[in-house]
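ARCHIVE ENTRY
Sequence with per-residue tokens
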Amino acid sequence: QVYVVESGGGLVQAGGSLRLSCTTSVSMYSNDQAAWYRQAPGEQRELVARITSGENTNYPDSVKGRFSISRDLAKNTVYLQMNSLKPEDTAVYYCNAQRFGFGAYNIWGQGTQVTVSS
């Protein structure tokens, strides 16, 4: 069974930093895609960071320059480093892992709460 486990959420003051982790139950390969999304109360889920084959990354303007996604394939873990946090970053953050082609999967984590106080 393929699943992911997230950790690292919590309460932080504005301007602070947090690092989220997402570990998959199966080996992660460089062609796999991983992403972090977030959903605030009453809002739609939105993408905040994605890493794809070739370690290409992309971010929306709202977090560009503040958030950074990376991964350690040996640990089957994806990270989201969040710096200069703002109250509007408050949301539940979800990890998404995808594999395409043979053995394809598309799985979501249970979510981890990030709260930024002003």
In short: DSSP finds no helices and eleven strands in the chain. The longest strand covers residues 91-99. Residues 19 and 81 are 4 Å apart (CA to CA).
